[in-house]
């Protein structure tokens, strides 16, 4: 391809549209400079109709060449509210590719095809909890990381919410016995596709790193994926609270059937449930979640497909030899807090409701730890410390106690410059930096400090994918985590490794039994 004014292509050559072999047939991608992109590769059959609520089915092989130019469908879900600043800042309202139950697809970026390069493979599971989102969102664009790391980057779409985790095994026939786990089975199927095909895309099936942010981090920790991975990165949230026992699902999920009266008649007629238009099912899902909560549809620990809660009561043995990176943001909880003008009186009222007679003690400790922080940032840090940070450290403690492969722990402290910095170091704004892309997910110009942090965090992920250890020359020495030193890498304007940061706050919450 010859470049004209502003780098626009003047002509096209056959090499711009290379063809890759897969076990199911041939795919045609597009070369954007040195990186070849394949979008909407299907690793499973459509999940509607007879395939709804059942384990993923294989793709039907084809003859000829299929074009893989466009993003595939995302799982049916409620659209994001684009009137919210946080939504726009992380570009969560941008989920291209259409919507439908033909959603078992992945996107892939690679420097070369079938060249024996044995490149590391980055596999991203998207955020959005188990309810929303897709790998098509701009923050997961894989081209910069594939180019920076000389690696293959894969992002995965799968079933969500009631489509992936509604438990009907006790009220329908045996075909639906595992319906509360099929969204996780989709992810395993995607890893099987990678194992079987990635060499044809220049990757090494024995050097796969799964990583995910927010809900994607919870998906990384599932035991049933461990058989196909060699590395794991799990930013934000430990998973034990985000799976539910089958007994709980039995009580809650039938409400999805009855919350939209007249939509279907199940029980003796399971086929009717599979024939309901997906928009009707999505409407019923929303009504059910008003009764059972936003986290109503999450993976079901059924004792078979999912044998136990991740890291509960201990780190799973199947991943004992899998190294991990575990981390959070300093102000993760700001994603759900918009009281930016909170004053000291409002902060004190919040603390009294949460801590009662210990409110003054808690506030004094946080003001001492963060003397320059506004009341809003103090509130977000209290909530983060008690929730996401506590669970991440819980996971790290159990991984360390297991005595297998090491874990490295980090905290991202650099505030997002988006919207005047009012959110601080909030949930999700580091995603694009991991993908070595400073121009998305922040809604503002990249600062020199942010570009430096991007080099540090991207290089850590690349080193980890290649060697199982994040240490590299672009980063200060990062010791593995243990329960004695609790060493944590703080990504900030001055990135540094610190032993047990916020130790006093951690111990305070432990004494107060608030974590």
Features:
3-stranded mixed sheet; globular; Rossmann fold; 15% strand; alpha/beta
Describe the protein in words.
It is a single chain. By secondary structure, this protein is α/β, with parallel strands linked by helices. The protein has a domain at 14-74 and 95-317: Rossmann fold (3-Layer(aba) Sandwich). Helices cover 30% and strands 15% of the residues. The protein has helices spanning 85-89, 143-149, 161-165, 182-197, 215-220, 246-252, 254-258, 270-275, 278-292, 344-355, 359-369, 375-402, 431-434, 448-467, 503-512; strands at residues 19-21, 26-28, 30-32, 35-42, 65-67, 105-110, 119-125, 152-156, 203-212, 231-235, 244-245, 300-301, 324-329, 407-412, 487-491, 496-499. The strands form 3 sheets. It has an 11-stranded mixed β-sheet with strand order 3-4-6-8-7-9-10-13-14-15-16, sandwiched between helices. Helix 10 packs across helix 11 and helix 10 (344-355) crosses helix 12.
